[in-house]
Specification:
Layout lengths: L1 E4 L8 E2 L1 E2 L40 E4 L4 E3 L2 E2 L22 E2 L10 E19 L17 E7 L6 E6 L9 E20 L1 E3 L2 E3 L1 E2 L1 E5 L4 E5 L5 E7 L2 E4 L3 E2 L3 H19 L23 H9 L11 E6 L5 H17 L3 E4 L7 E5 L7 E4 L7 E5 L6 H12 L14 E2 L15 E4 L2 E2 L10 E2 L7 E2 L12 H11 L9 H6 L7 E4 L4 E3 L2 E2 L22 E2 L10 E20 L16 E7 L6 E6 L9 E19 L1 E3 L2 E3 L1 E7 L1
Parallel strand pairs: 20-21, 20-22, 22-24, 27-29
Antiparallel strand pairs: 1-26, 2-19, 3-23, 4-8, 5-6, 7-14, 8-11, 8-15, 9-10, 9-11, 12-13, 16-17, 17-18, 23-24, 25-28, 30-34, 31-32, 33-40, 34-37, 34-40, 35-36, 35-37, 38-39
Length: 649
């Protein structure tokens, strides 16, 4: 069975960071989500600010600015370029740079005057990343520095002291400290970094925040959404599905009240380098609000056109890129949702390989509408981990979270990644799949293996995207039929292609001279459309509709079967309508010995089909499956059973 959020059916985006449990060596739990909440449609995107960046409403002075001389600064490196909301160093706006010095132990500083006492508890420094005068991210980032505050601009108190600061490997370097009331804040470097033989203090962007840390909203069902404000962004606790927009009004009113309180002193400010927008940072990373604007343009949280666009973080090695691309190629050959490498799309997935403490990977569930990430630990760049997280990104959650999981597995915890989900907001279908790539390797399977389950119960957790994972994606995205008939699917998913096939009869000149275009092997050749060389299988013509005809599959060993797909002929060689020869009355039967049969599907007066007909039933062990027709459809004056393809899952 696949479990996924019922996306696009009136619910908001699932605020879920999906990963693994600590007991699973492939994955572990994560306490932070990148998912954001849907904005009530009554709000206007353009009028809602993000968490205020206090630096942009302050008067800013610096110790020096690089240039031809102190009176001729280089405008590409002027202080306003470090407060323009652009966190990247680009030609024409690199950020701020001090004058060069011949000595490493030179003091350079940048100072902010808020004009009045303000609460501050976070400084974010964005390292330059243009490599114009160097080749390494973080050129010019100070080695030793202090962040200090003052009530009068004369007496200073340090709140952060950094010694032997390493060259940044991430552009954002965030420094949190206990909230202080201050009018002035200064970042003072005492040991500089060498850039092309001289010493500088250089930053792409500086942001200052009064960060409340966390807000809480309680929904009508008693669940609480914890809104964490961090690094200028906001995120929702990973185990909360944020509900309908009407329930969110209270949350947004609460957050808006905070914004108004913090931002009121800045409104109308004319001091400082930036007097616009009341000092509000409107950069796209303030996605708590921006995602609401985008969600108004998104039908649901599935990926449009069944396509996920992706890119790699710049620090992902060539070897890891090659491995991940290989896993994506395998996925694309077997699943209906395709992954396409394209950095130009706003809504895309970034693969990032980084050390995750006691974790192998994490991803949000479904499409956020904004850039989102799949994080993989360097020791876990495996097909299981990568395709597991890809499954989350397209909308699948963990197999062991289905409501009736206690029938199939015990010893599963109840944390956010294992909690049983029984609410109507989750949709499930198909058998419980022990071999799903979305199943954890923890827990103990119920013995003997219950009906209604597939896969190997003794070793849960598949190593790659499996049959029912792919069928779950088909179901979620509304794609008719099962996976495409590749060699891998033949072995893993469509059992009929590895079965011995026998039939009651085959059309032809006589019982000993069958028409080779209509023999039983044509119904299991992977061609779902009838064509002039392979129509499918057809029984001999009969003069009476009340004639019994059948096709039988024998597997090499006992399998667990839960679904049969019948593809009608669609060639119209002897007729004019799709579905000629599709049986009117028939049953699908299973057997473990070929002698004693159990009917799992029965149909009477079946209408002429226009496409694939899928029949699902409780998974059960079977070595034999047969389709038995007892009332046939007329084709050209005679009665036949005719099918283009049969697939068994």
């Amino acid at each position: 069975m696949k479990v996924f959020s019922r996306l696009g059916l009136g619910l908001g985006l699932m605020g879920l960071m999906a990963c693994g449990a600590p007991s699973d060596p492939q994955e572990t739990d994560s306490r932070q989500s990148e998912a954001a909440v849907a904005l009530p449609t009554s709000r206007l995107c353009s009028s809602v600010p993000c968490l205020p960046n206090l630096a942009r409403a302050a008067t800013v002075t610096v110790s020096s600015t690089t240039g031809s001389s102190p009176t001729q600064p280089d405008t590409r490196w002027a202080i306003d370029k470090a407060l323009d909301g652009n966190r990247e160093s680009v030609d024409g706006a690199f950020g701020w740079s001090s004058m060069s010095s011949g000595a490493e132990s030179t003091s350079q500083w940048i100072r902010f005057d808020f004009g009045t006492q303000r609460s501050v508890n976070e400084v974010q420094l964005y390292a330059r990343n243009d490599a114009t005068f160097g080749t390494v991210l973080g050129d010019g980032f100070p080695r030793d520095f202090v962040i200090e505050v003052s009530a009068d601009g004369a007496t200073w108190t340090p709140v952060v002291t950094q010694v032997n600061q390493p060259t940044p490997t991430e552009q954002l370097q965030s420094f949190r400290f206990s909230t202080v009331q201050t009018r002035f804040l200064r970042i003072r470097a005492t040991r500089l970094d060498s850039v092309s033989g001289s010493y500088y203090f250089q930053l792409a962007e500086v942001e200052l925040y009064d960060n409340p840390g966390q807000l809480t909203y309680t929904f009508s069902d008693g669940e609480q959404a914890e809104i964490t404000l961090d690094n200028g962004d906001a995120s929702v606790s990973e185990d909360i599905l944020v509900g309908e927009a009407t329930e969110l009004d209270g949350l947004f009113v609460e957050y808006q009240a905070y914004i108004n309180q913090v931002g009121s002193a800045q409104v109308g400010s004319t001091d400082g380098v930036s007097a616009s927008s009341a000092g509000i940072n409107t950069h796209q990373r303030c996605k708590f609000w921006q995602v609401g604007c985008w969600k108004r343009k998104i039908i649901d949280s599935r990926w449009p056109n069944n396509t996920v666009y992706y890119e790699f973080h710049r620090e992902v090695s060539d070897a890891n890129r090659q491995a991940i691309r290989g896993f994506i190629t395998d996925w694309n050959s077997r699943a209906p949702v395709q992954w396409v490498e394209d950095t130009s799309r706003f809504s895309r997935v970034m693969f990032k390989v980084k050390n995750l403490s006691n974790a192998c990977g994490n991803s949000i569930v479904g499409r956020s509408g904004l850039p989102q990430k799949i994080r993989i630990d360097p020791d876990c760049v495996t097909q299981r981990t990568v395709q597991h997280e890809m499954g989350h990104a397209v909308g699948l959650i963990h197999e062991q979270q289905r409501c009736d999981r206690d029938t199939y597995v015990t010893g599963i915890g109840n944390d956010s990644n294992n909690r049983k989900e029984c609410a109507a907001k989750y949709t499930t279908f198909g058998p419980y799949d022990y071999s799903s790539v979305m199943h954890y390797r923890s827990g103990t399977a119920v013995s003997p293996q219950p009906l209604g389950s597939v896969g190997t119960s003794g070793s849960p957790g598949g190593l790659l995207l499996g049959c029912y994972d792919r069928l779950g994606i088909h179901k979620l995205y509304g794609v008719a039929g099962g996976p495409g008939p590749t060699t891998t699917d033949a072995a893993v998913c469509n059992l009929s292609r590895n079965a011995a096939v026998t039939v009651s009869s085959t059309t032809g000149y006589s019982a000993t001279q069958p028409d080779t275009r209509w023999t039983s092997n044509r119904a299991v050749d992977g061609l779902r459309d009838s064509n002039s060389t392979s129509y499918g299988w057809s029984s001999m013509g009969a003069s009476s509709a009340a004639t019994t005809q059948w096709i039988r599959f024998e597997f090499p060993f006992e399998r667990r079967v839960s679904r049969v797909d019948l593809y009608p002929r669609n060639d119209a060689t002897y007729g004019t309508v799709v579905g000629d020869g599709f049986p009117v009355n028939f049953s699908i039967e299973v057997s473990t010995d070929g002698a004693n049969w159990t009917s799992v599907v029965t149909r009477t007066n079946h209408p002429r089909p226009g496409g694939v007909q899928t029949y699902e039933f409780t998974a059960r062990p079977a070595r034999f499956v047969r389709v038995v027709a007892t009332n046939l459809r007329a084709v050209g004056g005679m009665y036949y059973v005719q099918l283009a393809e049969l697939e068994v899952f």
